[in-house]
Fold this sequence. Notes:
Elements: E1 16-18, E2 21-23, H1 25-47, E3 53-54, H2 56-64, E4 76-80, H3 81-94, E5 100-102, E6 115-118, H4 127-132, E7 141-151, H5 154-172, H6 179-193, H7 203-218, E8 226-230, H8 232-236, E9 245-246, E10 253-258, E11 261-266, H9 269-277, H10 296-305, H11 331-354, H12 358-383, H13 388-409, H14 413-439, E12 442-447, H15 454-465, E13 470-474, E14 480-482, E15 488-491, H16 511-514, E16 518-521, E17 532-533, H17 540-543, E18 549-552, H18 566-571, H19 573-576, H20 579-583, E19 586-589, H21 592-606, H22 611-617, E20 618-620, H23 638-644, E21 653-658, H24 662-666, H25 668-684, E22 689-694, H26 704-717, E23 723-725, H27 729-738, E24 741-744, H28 748-755, E25 760-762
Parallel strand pairs: 4-7, 12-13, 12-16, 16-18, 18-19, 19-20, 21-22, 21-24, 22-23, 24-25
Antiparallel strand pairs: 1-2, 3-4, 5-6, 6-7, 7-8, 8-9, 10-11, 14-15, 14-17
Helix pairs in contact: 5-6, 5-7, 11-12, 11-14, 12-13, 13-14, 25-26
Amino acid sequence: MGNEEKMMDSKFLEDEIRDGFYIPTLGKRAWAAELIVLQEVDRICSKHHIKYFAAYGTLLGAIRHHGFIPWDDDMDIMMLRKDYEKFCKVAKEELPDGFEVTTFRNHENFWSFMARVVAFPRICFEEEHLEKYNGFPYIAGIDVFVLDYVHADDEKKSERCSFAKYVLAVADELEKMDEKTLGENLQRVASICETEIPEYSTLHELKVLLYERVEKLFAGVKESEAENVTQMMPFGIEKMESAQFFKKYFKESIRVPFEDITVPVPMGYDSILKKTYGDYMHSVRGLAGHDYPFFGTQRKQLQACLDFPIPGFYFDKKQLERKKTEEDRSYRGILPLQLEGLRTSLHEISKAQKNGKNVELISYLELAQQQAIELGTLVEQVKGEGLEVVTALEQWCEEIYQMHQLLNAGEEESIIEKSVSQLESLYEKAAQRLQEEVLSRKEVVLLPYKAKYWDKMKHVYQEKCNEPDCDVYVIPMKCYEKDYLGNFVRLQEDGNYPEDVHCIAEEDFDFALHQPDEIIMETPYDSYNMAVSVKPFFFSSNLQQYTKKLVYIPYFKEDDFAREDERAFYNLQYYCNMPGVIYADEVCVQSESMRQRYIEKLCEFAGEETKGIWQKKIVAKEEYFRDEKADEIVEIPDNWKKIVCRADGSDKKVLLFVTSFGMFVENEKQAILKLKSIIECLEEEQEDFAVLWYAGKQNTDTIGSVKRYWDMVQMEQKKLKNSERIETDHELEVAEKISTAYYGVSGEAAQRMAQGGKPVMILNSEIV
């Protein structure tokens, strides 16, 4: 069953941390473009009954990550020779306009024994292209490798390899040969290949003819003469045993999840991956044998052709000139002036009362009342209700009202004098409370990026809330999806913040009026993220003018990496060489190691002479990036509770049992015996513990051994009365947290539990 082409979910295109590795949105767009190409290949193969399989990093990614390997960005598939030849033949007619199948036959500089299917053979910024390929302008495609049969007879195997090497050497050295040498070599090639070389007009045509002869040598072994298959160039021709696999592994395929589609993998994927990568479920960066990113060279070539820089964020020394805040426009500038106006009016009230000028006195009383109302209104606007300063101002207004009444009633001067004295007392109280409750308090504004990332901002929030005399405002920023042209297209829905966190809407907080002491933001991108954006008001370049201290703390945590990890260091530019880092007064990162990487990358970006700036600005704040998942309350699925909990409510010991279909491919009979013996042992101890069994992700394929595997899992699990099957990744994550021990095939679940200090035993299906 193939995959129907569909638009990529916009959230897929966003920057993401996977397995501790940062993937930028441009990398995600490259993935999305490749998936479009794969869907076309899949459609053609389904229509014409052509078998293909995920290969190399794509196969490893499908099994280990259910998608791309985070630090890899190319896509590989493989086909047996007859399927490859059929595909190359029908693809010319079946592929959409603009697609191209590149081989040595049709491309002048493509001297490889494979094919490459590309969506468009050149860099393209046309709107129709960008819209279809999620804004990715570079050439994207997939590599199609060929599997040929390997002679079971070692002598014939060596002879074929020697012949192929010779013909290939002749083809690659044509330009260095004189006419006589060329003629002699072509005669020998004709003898080896048992066919004459057709007429040719150029050396390029001759080279193509010779490459075709090499291909025929590769394809010259019949299936009946072989037990193994291999990719002849370079592995087969060099007789690399580690790259030869039993042909039975490719007899059938099963489809497994890959991002939001499925891909076919060889039924012997487990043995193939073990032979190729060893403990393949253990993630190791840097295994891919190609440049990263694959479009990096194209980008350099594009820049060389342009007379202007490719759009992006570039460093300018002027960016280090900090914008000045306008404190006189803030409430801290306005309130003291209002208080001073109130004091002046009080002075005039006292003077008019002493001089017996009642008309002036009434006028100043009315002015003072209005001033107190304005002062109290502003205080409540910035700090809310319930403050003692507002109560004092309300009492002030009441006292003025009473004085007004006394004056109208013609009361004695001594009574009026007492009221003036009361006003002076209330003024002192209001002034003191204003200083204590408003002016002397620190204000910190937190701008969380999204609710799902609150676990990072939470530590900062708790720290600031615990500071004395500090008011903390949490203002979640609205996030908008962008189209391929950078336009805002829709507002993203955000999740819920914890109930004990009071959030303020963007429009309800006046930054110019507050001028907070500190603004802490989580996004560094400003307008330079291709997938999402906040409103321009919340760009770091703008926020700088509203605070004396702008702080940037990444909303994510990735694994620390060494400078030698070229891929992680390359991607660092997408969140380090950004406005938020440049404009912030302080940048908090997860560790001293990461601080050094930031400094190194910024020196590349802005020049070595700026090193001192970054050394001062960037600080390691490990406490902000604490991982508290271990302390989270685990929600156990209802159907598990009856087996993992005793009648008295206490918890049983839980065994996480993990098997895979790969056990069945190499030796199905042996695997069946092993599985049955395990279940018998578990049955005997069922009263003491529960079993959570993860058998992999079931799919719709029903080929023989796959179906027998799932039938057996279903049958054997029924024998375990205190057991439940794990169906989803989320359930597996929960199982890892609540399980006491692990028994099963090698994999990331085993690694995670071992890292958590839990007992782990790896299943060996060869020992019964």
